Every structure is written in C-alpha cells, then in structure tokens.
Here is the input.
Amino acid sequence: METVEHDKRKCPTHLSGHECTARLLPVKDALDILSGKWKLQIIISLTFGKKRFKQIQREIPGLTPKMLSKELKELEINELASRHVYDTSPVTVEYEITPYGKTLKPLIEELHKWGAKHRKRIIARK
Amino acid sequence: METVEHDKRKCPTHLSGHECTARLLPVKDALDILSGKWKLQIIISLTFGKKRFKQIQREIPGLTPKMLSKELKELEINELASRHVYDTSPVTVEYEITPYGKTLKPLIEELHKWGAKHRKRIIARK
DNA sequence: GAAATCGGTATACTTTAGGAAACCAGTATA
DNA sequence: TATACTGGTTTCCTAAAGTATACCGATTTC
Here is the structure.
C-alpha cells in the first residue's frame, strides 16, 4: 500500500513534476489576483460601472487612499482595470473594468456560490 | 479564525445593504478558505486520497510541520478534511477530504481555468 | 476668507503570515 | 547503543500586508 518513491519528492507522488506545476501554478496565479482584503471589493465595485478614485473610496468603507492606490495600480498592471485621466480642473480620473477584467465573472460567481453555501452551513451549525 | 460574523459595514451606494452583504461576504468567506500559501495545495493533495501527516509534508516541498498542523486544523474546523487516529504504535493519523470538501472542486476548477489563461497572457506579453 | 473637493503621496506604525530550529515521547531499526 | 521514524508543539524571528495620519496644489463652494 505504501509505495512512496523517494525520487519524486518535489511533487505529490501521484503527479509528475509537469502535472504538478500545471495544476498548482495557475491556481496560485488566480489566487494572487484575488486575495487580499480589498482587491475583490474593488473589482466588484467596478463591475457596476466606471468610478472615480474618491468614489470608490467612499463606497468601500475602511479603504484608505494608500491601499486603494496600490490595488488600482496592480489591477492596471494586470490589465483588469484601466485608468482614464480627463483634463478638467481639478483633474478627473476614472477607473473602469476592462473586458479582460470581466472574464473574472464566472470565477467570482463560483466563489460567490460556494461561499454562500458555506456561510449557510456555518450559520446553521451554530 | 474563520468565523462567519455579521458585518455591519456600510455598502457601495449602488447596492442596498442587503444586496451588498449578500454579494461580498460569501465571496470573502470562500476566499478565506482558499487563500494562503498552503491550503489549496493540501486540499488538492487530499483529493487524491487519504494521507498521513508526514506524507503530506513530504509531498508538499517547503511545508513545515507548524504550518501543516495549523492548516489541517482549519480544514477540520471547516469540515473540509477529517482526521482519523488509529491506535497503532507509533500512532497513525490519517487525513481525508470530506464529501463537503469535494464540493470545492468546481471552484478550484474555475480558479485553474482562469489562472491558466492568465498565465498564458502574462507570458505572451513579455 | 475658510472649508471642502479632487487624486493621490509620505511616513510611521501595527498586525499577520510564514519560516527556522529545537524539542517531545514512544517505537522500531541497524 | 545510536539513530530515525511517528505526529505534532514551542519559541523566536522576518517580511509583507495593512492602518493611521498628515500633507500636497489647484479649484470650487459656503
């Protein structure tokens, strides 16, 4: 029953090295995009329409400008949100979810579905 | 730790309080379960069969006993994995994914799908 | 003239996630 | 007798994540 080979220590024994990388890395990539306290709240907020900096901040309670700035930059780098500057005074800046950002929808939906079931379960257990 | 509490925060203006809670909290709950460096690797490892403590540790490179212990406890609390102790000597402990834990599969699959596309995109852009 | 708005930045701090190493008792192996 | 395995715990540490607060110049409103 215990047929653990010693030369396969880098990956789970049931997976080859290639299979292991192929399975774990993308999941980790996706999680990197979504994890953290604010990223998803911002993304979800943007799925409801273009928003200005302070507007996002007002909508998400507790979110400091420093964090918002940092997260928006990361969303931009990953092409999930875009930043548009209009030459008004004072300057107007709008953030918008990109078409690519919208491809997150099924994933977020799945998170929502599972999370909702889980929440019901936890509450029922108390 | 991963307790589900009622959140009285204000919500984005475009959503009613109820809609906001309904939308954001479950997503956060799901993410709490999956985020972190080791949780998903452990879950995925367990989907391939029962495992013993040291066996999991050997399969996932870099995973320290402290982290493994902590993560397994959380998985147990959330009823995603179960712990079975057998009265052998030395004691045998087996961890197994629960039926409930298996319900994470579609979500993990979605993370994998999106992550794989994202990975291709990033690599292609370089 | 004072206050508030815009889109942020700078600095300093606390909190959390995670890592390294040592250690435990009981048993088996060399 | 010495070593290694079992399933973990304990302590100390660092790096990253996140918080708090003040500030900026330009402009609009009270």
